[in-house]
Amino acid sequence: MTRFELNILGCGSATCTRRHMPSCQVLNVRDRLLMIDCGEAAQLQLRRMRLKPSRLGHIFLSHMHGDHVFGLPGLVSTLALLNCRGTLTVHTFAEAAEVLRRFIDTFCQRVNLDLRFNVISPEGGETVLDEAGFTVSTFKLYHRVPCVGFLVREKPKLRHINGEMARFHGVPTYAMQALREGADWEAPDGRVIPNEWLTTPADASISYAYCSDTVYDRRVAAAVQGVDWLYHEATYGDDAAPKAMPRGHSTARQAAMVAREAGVKRLIIGHYSSQYNDEEPLLAQAREVFPDTLLATEGLRLNLQHPSTE
Is 67 a catalytic residue? Predict the structure, then answer.
């Protein structure tokens, strides 16, 4: 089974607290690390979670607010000090790319990394990364500044060879890849052996959506329709609901409404306001609407191949 794992490095909002770090998470997809948002102290959290910096190839920034980008210069500086090499691509808007490039060039002058910026549209709706086993696409969010979410989808997987049946029918090694791709096998005597006799179904392809800062909007639910896992900001609880819309944020209950309307399998909430010392009430409010809800917390590692946590 291929790896598809979520690591929460930070799930707080604009103000750092003793309980939460700013927004940052890392997906491990087939041993390739993808960082989504890069709040302060991202490099420290990478080490705490024992994630190898050398495997980090892409960083996706949802918008230009400090709690989502201030960690990037420090991370690049640390990677330089560790003598990390290879290519690191930052996916962000044109204005952000210009500002961040200038800052990094000023303070991180001895970088062996091939640091690249891929300019993405704030309107969403584009595939920004297409790898062998998965894609990353964007969708529009509705915050006080231009903002996008990210949708990571595994591509359809190959079927599994039934070794015993393949040997029984004399299938040669060179034909195995075609079997995995769904082809039948034509024996030398002309008999056609159906693929379903020789293989078992492929593992399910997993999808994960990241909704950064946004007000409640049904267009978000439409964009993440049917995903397996949804991370959605839940800055406020019912007690502070009047603050949500003017500040471009959602409540825990509204995050759950998006999950329910989108028909997702599981919901993770995060980006908590610093006014809360206990997020359990937020979890309870979300679960009233969408029972399969989890609280994000720093250090949480989830195997997204399974509906249950580690």
Answer: yes
